[in-house]
Amino acid sequence: MVSPIGAAYVDSLFGLEPPTRGPLGDEEYVTLCSEAISAGTDTSATTVEWAMLHLVMNQEIQEKLYQEIIDCVGKDGEIKEEDAEKMPYLEAIVKETFRRHPPGHFLLSHAATKDTELAGYTIPAGVYVEIYTAWITEDPDIWSDPSEFRPERFLHGDGVGVDVTGTRAVKMLPFGAGRRICPAWNLGILHINLLIAKMVQAFKWLPVPDAPPDPVETYAFTVVMKNPLKAVILPRVQIP
Ligand code: HEM
Fold first, then answer.
1. Which CATH number fits domain 24-238: 3.20.20.70, 1.10.760.10, 1.10.630.10, 3.30.430.20?
2. For residue range 88-102, what is the model confidence (pLDDT) as tens digits?
């Protein structure tokens, strides 16, 4: 899809004139655009791949999601943004994916601008603070059976009421929290929801015979599958 003239992200930068200085320069346009691309593509793609791994390995979860999709839009209906918002099981699957596989195990480096007290620690001005997000979601004092992939926990379990932005309580931090939270967290979730819903509406995803998906992780820009996901995909129209 092509944006109408004037509606692209880069167009919104052309009109910017921060109060203390003039318009942005060419290098800043390039940096801001490449930052949005690099921060937004790997993170979302990794999340979709991990979610699909669990849907391939757990056919029951996939069928439950498929039922939710066809109850909402039918077998051939187009899934739009407002439909994805009416699918609580899809939301639970995506949240459980962020909990079990936060795309970045660390947030970006943060530094205190002045001497600060944080959770009983003194952070001197200028010192970097690194936040290991996976530690929070692996903690058995916060999550029951943390290594288990169980979307239902967000419908009636220890995930009820937990949000991904850490505003109510910090039980997961896939996008960070507070002032420097990912500025596109809701766009990222929307893309992931729509992609997964469309992929499951159109195809049934099955393990490759004798070669089930391998959930081993490795560190790249995000935490990815060491052996990329392979699956057999059957068009749903061919399934009686
Ligand atoms: C699954 C999707 C995504 C995840 C998990 C994610 C995660 C994150 C995290 C953890 C941070 C650092 C927050 C911190 O250090 O406190 C961040 C920052 C950022 N993200 Fe995302 N992100 C996602 C999608 C996107 C998308 C779609 C875009 C742009 C279109 C984007 C643009 C950015 C930018 C520009 C920053 C830096 C913000 C700053 O410097 O204050 N992200 N993201």
1. 1.10.630.10
2. 999 999 999 999 999
Q: How far is CA 239 from CA 5, 22, 63, 200, in A?
A: 42, 60, 13, 13
Query: What is the spatial distance between Cα 154 and Cα 137, in angstroms, rounded to a whole number?
Result: 13
In the prediction, which pLDDT does 1 show? 65
Q: What is the pLDDT of residues 131-147, one digit of tens each?
A: 999 999 999 999 999 99
Ligand 1: lining residues by beta carbon, under 6 Å:
35-36, 39-40, 43-44, 47, 103-104, 107-108, 174-176, 180-184, 187-188, 192
Residue 31 has pLDDT above 80, yes or no: yes
Structure tokens that stand for 94 in this block: 């995506």
> ipTM of the predicted structure?
0.98
> Which residue has its alpha carbon closest to ligand 1 atom 1?
44
What residues does each domain of the chain span? 24-238
Q: What is the pLDDT of residues 164-208, one digit of tens each?
A: 998 888 899 999 999 899 999 999 999 999 999 999 999 999 999
Per-residue pLDDT tens digits for 197-217: 999 999 999 999 999 999 999
* 63: DSSP letter: H
Query: Which candidate, 31, 70, 8, places its Cα nearest to that of 202?
Result: 70
Residue nearest atom 43 in ligand 1 by C-alpha distance: 182
Reading the block at residue 202, the tokens are: 């159109």
Test site for ligand 1: of 12, 97, 175, most ligand atoms within 8 A of the Cβ: 175
Q: What CA dihedral angle connects 100, 130, 187 and 61, to 10 degrees?
A: 0
